[in-house]
Specification:
single chain, 1 helix, 124 residues, mainly beta, 7-stranded mixed beta sheet
């Protein structure tokens, strides 16, 4: 992944988030270069067997500054779904395109490839 340094962990908020968990079982194979080519489950399409100790905490870095818009997709936020001061790290938050569902992302299936793809799609 050109210039992107993505790291991720789980449960950085101590499981205290009150948000919904909206994505799980993310599988970005080698052929995936955009998030929509990855396999995943949404709260709309299946049962998400996760709790907030499994929330993805993502750190994205490169030479580009992040900008924020009120749109669907991924964001990095704090425990209250507010944009964090650092901007390049926080809970991975997702707003679904076909519904008003929004919330955190479960770490089930999450890997380095998914982290790189999502960081790139957020502009890092």
């Amino acid at each position: 992944s050109s210039g992107i340094n993505a790291e991720y962990g789980s449960g950085q908020d101590g499981g205290r988030s009150l948000l919904n968990i909206t994505l799980s079982d993310i599988d970005c194979g080698r052929a995936s270069d955009m998030f929509w080519s990855c396999d995943f489950m949404t709260a709309d399409t299946g049962y998400i067997n996760c709790d907030h100790t499994e929330d993805v905490y993502l750190v994205c870095t490169n030479d580009t500054e992040q900008y924020w818009e009120d749109q669907v997709g991924f964001y990095l936020v704090d425990i209250d779904a507010q944009l964090p001061a650092k901007g390049a790290e926080g809970l991975l938050f997702y707003r679904h395109t076909s519904s008003s569902d929004y919330g955190t992302v479960c770490d089930d299936g999450f890997n380095d490839r998914a982290a790189d793809i999502i960081c790139r799609e957020m502009g890092y």
